[in-house]
Amino acid sequence: MNTTTEKMSSADLIQIEDKYGAHNYHPLGVVLSRGEGVHVWDVEGKKYYDFLSAYSAVNQGHCHPKIVGAMVDQAKTLTLTSRAFYNDALGPYEKFVTEYFGFDKVLPMNTGAEAVETAIKLCRKWAYEVKGIAEDQAKIIVCGGNFHGRTTTIVSFSDDANAKDNFGPFTPGFIRIPYDDTAALEEALKQENVAGFLVEPIQGEAGVFVPSDGYLAKARELCTEAGALFIADEVQTGIARTGSLLAVCGDCSCGNSCQKDPQTYVQPDILILGKAMSGGAYPVSAVLANDEIMMVIKPGQHGSTFGGNPVAAKVAVAALEVVQEENLAENARRLGKLFRKEMNRIIENTDLVVKVRGRGLLNAILINDTEESETAWNLCVAMKENGLLAKPTHGNIIRFAPPLVMNEEQLMECVAIIEKTIMNFEK
Ligand SMILES: *Cc1c(COP(=O)(O)O)cnc(C)c1O
């Protein structure tokens, strides 16, 4: 194999990754070299529908011209100053993003995990300096099945053996309760020194678990009563993915422009965003909170060399503008309903799939086999052959999360691919 050859085949490229890259992922056997909108192409030129969207980072579609344009323009002008100096893109972005989501302030970071870490630090510091919890005693409640990223502290409160085993010793200070269980939350909040409750409004990695109606509102209420911060990790569910700007918006009337419909909106004290903040063009994450919380962090107490860099700032503004200009929340809501209706129709005619669940265009189907089985994986391989890319999460669950710029005709084409694959599949 010659790595300097112009065109390497998929097989060559898989082999070179396998030899020189750490084996911390197990990708589907497809090597992509181009993307546009809802489509990606492999190195042999075969076209696919992307039904994962880089774990919901590419909500705005691949290589969105407005986002790429903003990125390229800024990259040619000024890429990084560090926060040792001001830059002319950060302030305007901060004003834009805080108004967009309705918080006093933003703390810019790069990846989702960093933003979660930031929220944890912020919550703890607030607990000591505002709430008055005794030194080193603060506890944060988290949920079973959570996924908040891969840092040492975050995996400390995971219950996924893969994420956690042999990475100890772990960071203390977390209480884990079952997800979607307000009684358990009420009990946990009675413990001493509880600083906050960190939750995914819909659990994505766990397999797209949508909690019961009213769960988030009740959790918010219980946190308020207990004087604990309600921290929403919307890294995956945010930015129109679930059919409203944020999953905490619920089934709101304002659709795209988060007007905080009082009937449905659940106000987090700390909001964590990442992934589609940049439309998948660049690592951009953010933590939003009001002054009472955000102002506990003073100069030198937290930061990131790249956080808030001018390219990230310009990319995020463009990416969030696209969400509104192209009505992505409304589109996700409408197509999501259609998608689940179609999946339910397919389920009636097959024993292979038992259930579809989700909200907006964050959905999953449950395969009629064990978590250890290869069925879901093999089904994804077969869908790949038929021109649609998706990946199992947790063995027997397949997540379906296409870019939100998809239209109805394309969605129905995807439904046809999924249906054909299921109907022709032999275990
Ligand atoms: C992906 C994800 C993260 C971590 O984001 P990274 O950018 O991969 O570090 C955190 N929380 C949730 C809910 C996620 O889906």
Polypeptide structure, described:
It is globular and about 60 Å long. The chain is α/β, with parallel strands linked by helices and 427 residues long. Strand 1 and strand 2 form a beta hairpin. Helix 3 packs antiparallel against helix 11, helix 4 packs parallel to helix 11 and helix 12 packs parallel to helix 14. The two termini are 35 Å apart. It folds into two domains: 150 residues, Aspartate Aminotransferase, domain 1, CATH 3.90.1150.10; 261 residues, Type I PLP-dependent aspartate aminotransferase-like (Major domain) (Aspartate Aminotransferase, domain 2, 3-Layer(aba) Sandwich). The protein binds pyridoxal-5'-phosphate.
Averaged pLDDT: 96
The structural class is alpha/beta
Total strands: the figure is: 15
β-strand percent reads 15-25%
Helix content: 25-40%
Quaternary structure of the protein: single chain
What overall geometry do the principal axes of the alpha carbons give? globular
- Strand order across the largest sheet: 4-10-9-8-7-5-6
- CATH topology name of the largest domain, in short, is Aspartate Aminotransferase, domain 2
How are the secondary structure elements laid out?
Blueprint: H1 10-20, E1 32-36, E2 39-42, E3 47-50, H2 53-56, H3 65-75, H4 90-101, E4 105-109, H5 112-131, E5 139-143, H6 152-156, H7 161-164, E6 174-177, H8 182-189, E7 194-199, H9 215-226, E8 229-233, E9 270-273, E10 285-289, H10 291-294, H11 310-325, H12 328-348, E11 353-359, E12 362-367, H13 375-385, E13 388-389, E14 391-393, E15 397-400, H14 408-424
Parallel strand pairs: 3-13, 5-6, 5-7, 7-8, 8-9
Antiparallel strand pairs: 1-2, 2-3, 4-10, 9-10, 11-12, 12-15, 14-15
Helix pairs in contact: 3-11, 4-11, 8-9, 12-14
The site of pyridoxal-5'-phosphate has 15 residues, from helix 5.
